[in-house]
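Ticket #209: bound-state structure for adenosine-5'-triphosphate.
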Amino acid sequence: MIQTQNLTFKYKNQKTAIGFPDIHLKENEHLLILGKSGIGKTTLLHLLAGLLKPETGNVTINNTNINTLSSSKLDKFRGENVGLVFQQKHAIQSLSVIENLQARLFFSNKKENQNKLNDLLEQLNLTACKNNKINQISEGQLQRLGIALSVVHNPQVILADEPTSSLDDENCEAVINLLKQQAEKNKAHLIVITHDQRIKSFFENTMTL
Ligand SMILES: Nc1ncnc2c1ncn2[C@@H]1O[C@H](COP(=O)(O)OP(=O)(O)OP(=O)(O)O)[C@@H](O)[C@H]1O
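RESOLUTION: The complex was predicted; output attached.
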């Protein structure tokens, strides 16, 4: 379950706070958040991940009000329960594909299971390049690694920031299907923010900011 109440946020140089509609997702529900540039989509995603602290309101993930946690407990909670797919790809260049996934598990305090790792690599079509360093993989492989990194630790919530904005129609559909498949496999909520209208039809729940 993920729920927000009366969320607002104000950057230091802003006069008025940005307000956000309440979110209430029950088990196995996903959400697409749409909105024009500058409206506050990334800000909302960062509030949901606990990367920003709201001016008012709170975010509850599976009965934990994340805004009551100390910063070290919040870091731990995020590491264990949240998977983030960023626009910029965040992989450690000096490590191989598989080593990046192993490092993600290590930092999430989750045990490594070789069979599960191999399954994930297989599902995301990364087996052939699993021992390649990051500068030896293609853009598409790097994007799929971004998805693998966001789900390898079985998070309860997967948050994706504009995962399809630079993709053609075919890859756009493939990426959304991969995210949904991974969310369903992990029984996780998937929340995608975007201004890409093409992905509207893939979601039952949509919210426009
Ligand atoms: N670090 C910051 N400091 C001050 N203002 C910011 C900061 N980040 C964003 N803003 C402002 O807050 C508002 C919301 O920004 P946000 O990045 O959440 O929008 P967005 O909907 O994700 O935009 P886009 O679709 O262009 O990425 C914008 O007016 C932006 O200029």
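RESOLUTION NOTES: The CA atoms of residues 83 and 150 lie 4 Å apart.
TICKET STATUS: resolved
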